[in-house]
Amino acid sequence: MRRAVCPGSFDPVTNGHLDIVGRASRLFDEVIVGVLVNQSKSGLFTVEERIEMLREVTSSYGNVRVESFRGLLVDFCRAQRATVLIKGLRAVSDFDYELQMAQMNIGLAGVETLFMPTNPLYSFLSSSLVKDVAKWGGDVTPHVPDVVRDALKARLVPPPA
Ligand code: ADP
To answer: Which one, of 94, 134, 138, 144, lies nearest residue 118 by Cα?
Structure first.
């Protein structure tokens, strides 16, 4: 069984993330989306909310599981019996830091990192940009699944009094 982990914050999941997860799901028997629990940084959505949205939008792939993790990513990989990490690369500027982490992770636990070039449609897309646009009432429909767009609307626009 060939398993790969797609790690990240996913606060919230965007079409850029989904593109990477979907492509990975066609290359591996099983893909585990690992949602990082970061105690020092609270997101717009709780980890449970992020997981729920991710499960909903990845269920059609059939071989994708969504779990949370804390601590070392390589320990999560070991627990999931996955030997490969998949990282999306949006720009050359992503590469320096990703290379450092990849080299650390292979040294720590023999976990390989495969880099997947972003689909050019999504190379400008990040969760933080989506949150910024949504915060000011911009339409994020082309950039996130509908369930995420609706959750952003509900979270960011106060209901009328
Ligand atoms: P961000 O980097 O926006 O904070 P995450 O930490 O949730 O998002 O990212 C998780 C993974 O998804 C990383 O490997 C990241 O490079 C990748 N990723 C994020 N946005 C995109 C995108 N638009 N296209 C391709 N990969 C992406």
So the answer is: 94
